[in-house]
Design brief:
The protein has 330 residues and is of the alpha/beta class. 40% of the residues lie in helices and 18% in strands. The chain contains 15 helices and 13 strands. The chain has a seven-stranded parallel beta sheet with strand order 3-2-1-4-5-6-11, with helices on both faces. Strands 7-10-12 form a three-stranded mixed beta sheet. The radius of gyration is 20 Å and the shape is globular. Keywords: NADP.
Length: 330
């Protein structure tokens, strides 16, 4: 009998990747959870034989119904778009003295708790895979307390461990590495700068030299599949390669033929690239990852080779060679 995997937020980058991988696997039935099954992305997945159901992470009961009968659930949330570009409607939701970043943190944390509360009711569950990130405030000893889009996901794990111990015993965590495609979101996301002579410079906040796990985000499904092939209780860091920023820039220059240099910067410098706290938070994320490691040095984090399972992740050199860099270089 086929097992049922339920993919929350299936039309997102990670969810659609998980769906793509499990569509190729025999013995699986796939149910996708989305807020709007009428959207083209939802219809395209339904056309491939995926059962599409309505579910909203702001509504616990809708998620409960969506995950009923599942053997495996993949859960993930997304930090609100208000983080980078808040609207007047978003600003009106803030409490007195509350920043947009803090509001986004609270919203994502609550959504994660809602998902956990729902999945905890599934009596057929074998495995819950939660897409998370490291606890920046904790692992930096409080030095980097503003990486809210990391800590919101990490605090969901804390919630599950304290409130739902049975679910915790069936949970594995996937920590996605830094998306190598983030440069497409502009300089505040990845601070490349073109110099007058045509060369490029990448200036990243932080004083350390920890290797950064870089991943093509559409590879997420391969890592989720790997976690379904081993026992629960894993914290898996998902990446194609781990490179220092200096190593990455040298590799990028070699592959593109464009001269490039790397420099260490500061959070204060990065803050100037985008207003309203967005630049500051991304700067803190970069500095945290350089100074303490992207996973914070958490000794419980493992890599794909530790699973004893083949994970065909894209190597970063292959990504660079296959990418169209005209948007950056133009």
């Amino acid at each position: 009998m086929a097992k049922l995997i339920v993919i929350i937020a299936i039309t997102g980058t990670q969810g659609s990747s998980v769906a793509k991988v499990f569509l190729q696997e025999a013995g699986w039935t796939i149910r996708g959870v989305t807020r709007d099954p009428s959207k083209p992305a939802s219809k395209a997945l339904a056309a491939q034989g995926i059962e599409m159901v309505v579910g909203d992470a702001d509504d616990v009961e809708s998620i409960k119904a969506a995950v009923h009968g599942a053997s495996i659930v993949f859960g993930n949330t997304a930090f609100s778009d208000a983080f980078a570009s808040p609207t007047a409607e978003d600003m009106a939701k803030l409490r007195p003295g509350q920043s947009v970043r803090e509001w986004c943190y609270e919203k994502e944390l609550q959504q994660g708790k809602n998902i956990a509360d729902a999945v905890a009711t599934v009596d057929t569950l074998d495995l819950f895979v939660w897409s998370s990130l490291s606890h920046a405030r904790k692992w930096s000893g409080g030095k980097y307390s503003g990486v809210f889009h990391f800590d919101s996901k990490a605090h969901v794990v804390d919630y599950i461990n304290s409130v739902h111990p049975k679910l915790a015993s069936k949970m594995s965590i996937m920590q996605m590495g830094l998306f190598i495609t983030n440069w497409k979101w502009g300089q505040a996301a990845v601070p490349w700068e073109k110099r007058p002579d045509g060369s490029m410079n990448l200036r990243i906040p932080g004083s350390g030299d920890a290797p950064i796990p870089l991943i093509v985000p559409t590879d997420a499904g391969y890592f989720v599949k790997a976690l379904t092939q081993v026992s629960p209780g894993k914290i898996l860091l998902a990446f194609g390669d781990r490179l220092t920023w200096s190593e990455y820039v040298k590799l990028w220059s070699k592959c593109t033929g464009v001269p490039a240099t790397f420099e260490k910067g500061t959070v204060a410098e990065h803050d100037k690239l985008a207003p309203g706290g967005y630049g500051e938070e991304i700067g803190e994320m970069f500095a945290y990852a350089q100074d303490f490691g992207y996973d914070g040095g958490d000794p419980s984090v493992i890599h794909a080779q530790d699973l004893g399972v083949d994970v065909p992740a894209t190597r970063i050199e292959d990504y660079i060679k296959g990418e169209d860099w005209s948007q950056l270089l133009g």
